[in-house]
Amino acid sequence: MLPILLISPIAQTTPTPPPPEEIVIPQEIRPLPGRLDSVPVFNSNSPEKVINEGILLSTFPSAGKKNPEAHLNFPFNGRFDVFAHHVFGAPSSSPLADNLRSLYVGIILHNPGKKPVTVSVLQGASYLSQPDAPFIELPSFALNTENNVYAGPGSRVMSDVLRGLRQNNFPQQIVIAPGKYQMLQNAPIPVQGLTPPLNGRSTYARLRSNGTLYIASLATPARTNTDGTERAPTIEEWRNILDNGELSTPRDIPPTPLDQPGLRKYGRVAGVARGSYWRALLTDNPKTRFLTIPQPGQVISYGLSTLHGGTLGTNQIQSAPMLVRYPDTAYVAHGNYGVQYNLKLPLYNNTKNVQTVSLSIQTPLKEDQLSKKGLRFFATPARPTFFRGTVRVTYRDDLGKAQSSYIHLVQKRGQPGESLVALPIRPGQRRLVEVNFLYPPDATPPQVLTIQTLDGTKPPIPSIQPNPINQ
Question: Could you give the angle at the alpha carbon of 255 between the alpha carbons of 250 and 261, nearest 5°?
Fold first, then answer.
């Protein structure tokens, strides 16, 4: 007798969901002019989820250290940035889960020289996911005039730094005596009372030193006072982890080699990246000082944070190269977290009529070479959030008065995005518009900056215009 094959009626009647509907916007995609500067960035983002005590990133020399492979021997001097983004959610088997003690993240500085070193904190901010900046649902477009619109600590940190702020928990200056150590940060990631017990912290600081120093980020559980309350680790306790500790485990998934085809694991960053600022003047070509607006109804776009496997047909990789890194972490700083994009657009109307030009940031579907004659979007954006952060748009109005808007954007995968600004430009007139933002953590590249000249019959790709704020 043949075996009877039972087929679930659910399997028979459940249809395969149709693929999401796509729209293609015909437009010219250009590589972004300019380049990253050479400012080194201490970039501590692996392991993203920290479970055990240890070294997250050390640029100290390996000599005299118990685990020399954990130290990358990179000295800082002059301008540099510090970025750290880690999540704490200890499983029950971890020592850190004992009574749900907080995880402390310490960033330690060392002066190896014979003269004092002064470190100036130019801007800086650090926030927790809970309670400082929870991942709440926000509209895709919101004016952020008062700096009170954010979703996630990365979004909030980058908005502060964009505004040139220095949080009170960062001193204006740190003086490190010869051969001594000082803490730039000694801050908890608490989970007590949270359901689930999961929390994260994002930190970004711009600094300048007048001498050589080394930096390390370290993780350890909170220490306990005799009355059972928590206390921060002392600098001596941090130094013990630095000298005798090993790299924090478990490690993140190793990256795919950059030249390997197929599916790609980008990996998390742990090392020193080169570049914290991308300044660009968007013009017709390097010999001109203006950007001719598109013809009415036409669109041009410039890639933002393009990366390996996602250049959108420009063949331009904007990811910051790594000066030093651990071998199981990202080959380059994919995503450019914390990098400031300063984009100037001297728009020029070469037609005989007044034209209205709209600027927007968009999140198209990632492609390396375009499969269609334009960028692909979803008619209904997908669920994953690919960008959440504040953008500043600056220009002069018709009276010559400076106008500036801070706009918080939340964009899903495949979302065209709303208008940042729509400006009328007279025949033969030039109008300078400046767009600034720091690429936020928890975002997924690439994006594009899009310029569209309206033809009067179609709405702009974006459909909302913010009210400018006088400066």
Answer: 150
Residue at 14: amino acid letter: T
Q: Which of 298, 278, 292 is nearest to 343 (CA)?
A: 278
Q: How far apart are alpha carbons 14 and 452 in whole angstroms?
A: 43
Element of type H or E holding 359 = strand 355-362
Q: Which residues have C-beta within 8 Å of that of residue 412, sequence separation ≥ 6?
A: 140, 363, 378, 381, 382, 383, 384, 385, 386
Residue 241, classed as helix, strand or coil, is helix
Strands 40-44 and 79-88: parallel
And the tokens for 385?
């959030």
Q: Which residues contact 48 (CB under 8 A, 6 or more apart)?
A: 85, 86, 87, 252, 268
CA atoms within 13 A on the CB side of 18: 4
pLDDT tens per residue across span 177-212: 999 999 999 999 999 888 889 999 999 999 999 999
- Is residue 157 helix, strand or coil? helix
- Rounded Cα distance, 385 and 417, in Å: 12
Asked if residue 201 lies in contact with residue 189, where contact means CB atoms within 8 angstroms, the answer is yes
pLDDT at 262 over 70: yes
> Rounded mean pLDDT of 2-16?
45
Amino acid at 46: S
Tell me the three state secondary structure of residue 425: strand
List of residues 6+ apart from 176 with CB closer than 8 A:
109, 110, 111, 116, 117, 118, 119, 182, 213
Among 174, 151, 149, smallest CA distance to 163 is for 149
Name the β-bridge partners of 409. Answer: 141, 389
Rounded CA gap, 217 and 183, in Å?
10
For the chain, the maximum distance between any two Cα atoms, rounded to a whole number of angstroms, is 91
Which residues neighbour 371 within 8 Å (Cβ) at sequence distance 6 or greater?
none
Kindly state the tokens that stand for 455: 């033809």
Task: Cite the DSSP H helix spans in 167-306.
Answer: 235-244
pTM for the model stands at: 0.91
CA-CA-CA-CA torsion for 217, 220, 225, 227, nearest 10 degrees? 130
| Region class of 289: left (phi > 0), else alpha (psi between -120 and 50), else beta | alpha
- 400 versus 52: which is more confidently predicted? 52
